[in-house]
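Bumping with the actual sequence this time:
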Amino acid sequence: MIQAVLTNIPFSIMATGALVGIAATLVGTFLVLRRSSMLADAISHSIVFGIAIVWLLTGLASGPVQIFGAALTGVLTVVLIEMLTATRRVKNDAAIGLVFPALFSAGVLLLNVYARDVHIDAHTVLLGEIGFVWLDTVSLGGIEVPRALVSMASLTLVNLAFVSILYKELKLATFDEGLARSLGFYPGVLFYALLTLTSSTAVAAFDAVGAILFVAFVIVPPSAAYLLTDRLWRMILYGCAISLISSVGGYYLAVMWNVSIGGMMALATGAFLLLALTFGPRYGLIAQELRRRGESSRNDRRALVVHLHNHETAPERDEESTPEALREHLRWNAVRAQRVLRGALARELVTLDADNIRLTPGGRALAREVLEPWRRPVAAAATTTRRR
């Protein structure tokens, strides 16, 4: 039964995509929170240089040595970026734009000149072909398992162990680097370890899904999860779930519409980001608009009770407490005045007596609460004047 599952072509494709997405999300969450997500893009391109160098030195096109060598290239990319940034002549985003195209170009040239007869090429590294992962297999206990599935399962377990064991340290180093340093957690070492795992995951993923889909998985699911929650563990969990659903849904949609499987998986992650951006409970566009309207309505009700409170003991109270006076003095149109009045009546801030609006004890208390911060400076200034 296990052999039937592992050798099933759709399962191999979807499982590989899901493992790439989960492994990428585990490290990408911290890159997004550190505002360093574009380093994943830089690393995923610059590893072409590392892949070419390792092949030239060892003749190996895959395996642990290839992963380790390319991972070092990813770390080298970050070191060069930080060195350029440290000169203060180049900003961080410009340094990224200078370093990774240079390493990527050098890697492409090396591949075109010295590796023309090898299956490693720029197209393979960037795009991959997840639909063919079932063709390259390795024997495990007499069962032929896709090589990409084995490598990505291994990297996913390594990333999961890293995040689980060092969760508190990573959390502290991400949100308060100074405190982490003072407690002896070495945030710089943690950051480079995170980047090393990012590079290793990118190398393991490039042959199956390519660098482009890896970048989508390492940035988009964590970004969508960030819009859904403020809790780190939930953000990681939501990001992994989005990666899993995008891989499965992207595969079936690609088969249905006869399009690129990897491209549809990346598009599915973008759909989740769009949904989170629109319907997110706190940071979504709809939630923000509802909060803005709610705050505007609260401010209008405060303006209403303050206006009534200021004229409550004045001779012109009756003239100032009519709906027409509100439109005239507060410059509200009829629709807005009626909406604010209905809201104040519903919250029992005012009562409507014939055509006059009267404050309730609750409305009077709210007016005093609003006016209190303004009265204190005036009272202090008056006291100072009397002392002089």
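The tokens above came from a reply further down the thread. The longest strand covers residues 137-140.
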